[in-house]
Amino acid sequence: MLSAVIHLARGIHVGWVMAREGGLSFVDAADLPPHLRLVLRFGRKLERPGLGPGRLPAALTRLGPSYVKFGQFLATRPDIVGMAAARDLERLQDRVPPFPQEVAVATVEAAIGRRVSEAFLSFGPPVAAASIAQVHQARIRDADGVETLIAVKVMRPGVRERFTRDIQAMRFMARVVEWMRPEAERLRPREVVETLARSVLMEMDLRLEAAAVSELAENTRGDEDFRVPRPIWEFTARDVLASEWIDGIRLNDRAAIVAAGHDPEALGRTVIQSFLRHAIRDGFFHADMHPGNLFVDPAGRLVAVDFGIMGRLGNKERRFLAEILLGFIMRDYRRVAEVHFEAGYVPGHHSVDDFAQAIRAIGEPIHQRRADEISMAKVLTLLFDITALFDMSTRTELVMLQKTMVVVEGVARSLDPRLDMWTTAEPVVRAWLTRNLGPVGRIEEAGRAVRTLADVVADVPDLSQRLKRILVRLDEEGLREVAKVERRIRQETRRVVWSTLALWIIAIALLMQALR
């Protein structure tokens, strides 16, 4: 009870700040029931006068780092906040003043169990600071005696406690949203908060980020046009992540890229194709590919950094993505519709033909425009809008993928404004489908099925013993339950008999008293 009161107080504070800073301006009153429209109207009257654009980011920034992180996460969920709010949230800058150098040094020493002066040749001041961690440049001597620059990411002190407290309040507010507006359950607000909580918890263990870097590096070791910085495990712990220092040009500096002799058009194609390879081929992709996290190195390779937010797709989701992209490319709208039904994303009581007709309304305008005017990300956004009409439940992993694609497409188009997204995507999509749905893929799928069957057969004796033990236990428990029920029946029978007898005795006594 006390915790509910505390969370309610925090929720009221959040609502007050959102109202004062104009953060409610993105809410469409037409979509709300009458009682919530009244609340919105009251909240809009609390806005401070003279507010300019960018109200939602300003409100979240005032609420603190946890809400900045939540806003950045919601920027990947236009299905919840709408495209206008999602675009506004993209401008949230997770930049805060750095914490003192001596605190960073103490954190590093506690994490690696060595003095900074012994572990590093030099350990510089912070070069970037965010709500969770800040980055320092350091110098070490490697096993060959060569001096090497590295990046050292250090966790901000006290950040875990604050995020834990704020996440609890967000969980409470998500339950309140579902209670006040039951139709919001389709957007799964509680699941959104839990996804954020898992993401933040993983982001606050820098060993897991190092593992993500390592996995992505393993997946892309054969890619000649893409790489990631090598993690340095010797100096990595829960609160510290050391990795190779990247000397490169950020992708938002097109003039510098051209001046360095790189081909921006080819680099734009690399951005799109690398992302699709990671998502479709590997099922593991960088979900925060804004220009600040992407560089081109002196060799012309695309380099990604900051792996706190990663996305995963299962084989079903990868096939779904590949087939709908190829379906739009080939104008096979019936197949796009069938894929949705086969994946179980659209309930079976709907008509495939009706859904295909809705898909055609999205796809046909594509083929009436020039290639450089066609936005793959916009097509996917419209697709998710259509699926909402057919009761398609929100798929968090697919919406995160779609939003990342929006960002990736923007980066690629900043390098080559006339980039043909669909022609660029087709080789990656077709190669995956050919590989996985062709003869080789079928053979591999059959092999996996045989292995699964063999595992099941090998487990039959053990499963039989377990089943036998369960049945014996159920039988014993059943007998105990039967005995318990029989005892209860006997007790109830005795109670009814004695109650009835007592009533007759009372009735006879009253009758005899009346006859006197």
Secondary structure: elements and pairs:
Layout: H1 2-20, H2 34-44, H3 55-63, H4 65-74, H5 78-81, H6 83-89, H7 101-112, H8 116-119, E1 122-129, E2 133-141, E3 147-155, H9 159-180, H10 189-203, H11 206-219, E4 226-227, E5 240-244, E6 249-250, H12 254-259, H13 264-282, E7 284-286, E8 294-296, E9 302-304, E10 310-312, H14 315-330, H15 333-342, H16 352-363, H17 376-389, H18 396-415, H19 421-437, H20 439-515
Parallel strand pairs: 4-9
Antiparallel strand pairs: 1-2, 2-3, 3-5, 6-8, 7-10, 8-9
Helix pairs in contact: 1-3, 1-9, 3-4, 9-10, 13-18, 13-19, 14-15, 14-19, 15-16, 16-17, 17-18, 19-20
Q: Domains counted in the coordinates: how many? A: 3
Count of individual beta strands: 10
Spans where pLDDT lies below 50 across 5 or more residues:
none
What structural class is derived from the secondary structure elements?
alpha+beta
- As a whole number of angstroms, the C-alpha radius of gyration is 30 Å
Overall geometric form: globular
Largest sheet: 4 strands, antiparallel
Strand order of the largest sheet: 1-2-3-5
Order of helices and strands: HHHHHHHHEEEHHHEEEHHEEEEHHHHHHH
Keywords: ATP-binding, Cell inner membrane, Cell membrane, Kinase, Membrane, Nucleotide-binding, Transferase, Transmembrane, Transmembrane helix, Ubiquinone biosynthesis
Pfam families: ABC1 (PF03109)
Family: Belongs to the protein kinase superfamily. ADCK protein kinase family.
InterPro entries: ABC1_dom, Kinase-like_dom_sf, UbiB, UbiB_bact, UbiB_kinase
